[in-house]
Amino acid sequence: MTIKLLGIGKTDDPALQNLTEVYIKRLVFYNRFEFELIPDIKNAKNLDENQQKQKEGELLLNKIAASDFVVLLDENGKQYSSEAFSEFIQKRLNSGLKQLVFIIGGPYGFSEDVYKRADAKISLSKMTFSHQMIRLFFVEQLYRAFTILKNEPYHHK
């Protein structure tokens, strides 16, 4: 199974980008992992919030196959402990899926079409974080999940 993380726009802060890359490099030792960023919408300032979400949604949906299991990283999603998230990952690994896709929306979230396509929603926190910071938090938690599954000492109870 391939795990893919989709996001909108580039990371402006080099420190965040570097830390994210540290965990991406670690992940490849556990599982196939892809990180794909869709460029920001051009002339977004001329669009209202819903128009921007719609355009971003179209771009995101074009990157998803019909057979993909799609998980939105969404503030209204289910919250997991690190151990429970590792169990979520293990169940998907055991299911025979070809690809598990996690999606981080743009600054205004997701379009209705993206919500309709989603198979699950996960919230990393009740707090709000920038979509750029969520990239780092997610790849760290995914790495942590794999170390839990392998009984490695990274995670402390």
Automatic annotation (TrEMBL):
It holds the Pfam family SPOUT_MTase. Its main location: cytoplasm. It catalyses: pseudouridine(1915) in 23S rRNA + S-adenosyl-L-methionine = N(3)-methylpseudouridine(1915) in 23S rRNA + S-adenosyl-L-homocysteine + H(+). InterPro entries: Alpha/beta_knot_MTases, RlmH-like, tRNA_m1G_MTases_N. NCBIfam families: PRK00103.2-4. Specifically methylates the pseudouridine at position 1915 (m3Psi1915) in 23S rRNA. Coiled coil: none annotated. Keywords: Cytoplasm, Methyltransferase, rRNA processing, S-adenosyl-L-methionine, Transferase. This is Ribosomal RNA large subunit methyltransferase H. Belongs to the RNA methyltransferase RlmH family. One of its GO terms (cellular component) is cytoplasm. It is found in: Cytoplasm. Homodimer. S-adenosyl-L-methionine binds at residues 73, 105, 124-129. One of its GO terms (molecular function) is rRNA (pseudouridine-N3-)-methyltransferase activity.
